[in-house]
Write a structure and sequence with these properties.
Layout: H1 4-7, E1 10-15, E2 18-23, H2 24-39, H3 63-89, H4 102-109, H5 121-133, E3 136-139, E4 148-151
Antiparallel strand pairs: 1-2, 3-4
């Protein structure tokens, strides 16, 4: 006997109270996964298809995950503080200064990873978090000049 969801061409499934139209295969997997989760079984599958992946276990079952997240957030805060302190010590990064380019700030901070292709991503990400927080601003002297950063 086949699954009634598999026989339909498409059907609606409800996710967080919203209805959406899904192809039969994805709707079938969604419904099967939802039924298994509601029943509390994680290893059985619907009779019409192969076993599905086990649903993710909530993070409450992994107490160390919270510890790692807290450590990661602390590391990001330390990096932001380090970049800000380095920029405060540099005259070009003053609020009325010319600003420094991403790789120049990276060299001053000692955050260079010396990779072939993705070397400046750490500093770039931290600078854009600081821009979003309003402590750093982007400086463009002319349209074709490279992007520079300075303190607000």
């Amino acid at each position: 006997m086949g699954c009634p969801l598999r026989s339909k061409g498409a059907h609606t499934a409800s996710v967080s109270g919203r209805e959406w139209l899904a192809p039969a295969a994805s709707a079938h997997r969604f419904e099967t996964s939802r039924r298994r989760t509601e029943a509390g079984r994680a290893s059985t599958a619907c009779s019409c298809g192969p076993p599905l992946r086990t649903p993710r276990v909530p993070s409450a079952h992994y107490p160390r995950k919270r510890q790692f997240l807290m450590t990661g957030k602390a590391l990001i805060e330390d990096l932001k503080h380090h970049v800000l302190e380095t920029m405060r010590a540099e005259a070009n990064c003053a609020p009325l200064g010319r600003g420094l380019r991403n790789f120049e700030i990276e060299e001053l901070c000692g955050l260079g990873l010396h990779l072939d292709h993705h070397d400046h991503y750490v500093t770039y990400s931290i600078l854009h978090v600081l821009i979003r927080e309003g402590t750093v601003q982007v400086v463009r002297l002319r349209d074709k000049d490279p992007t520079r950063y300075r303190l607000r």
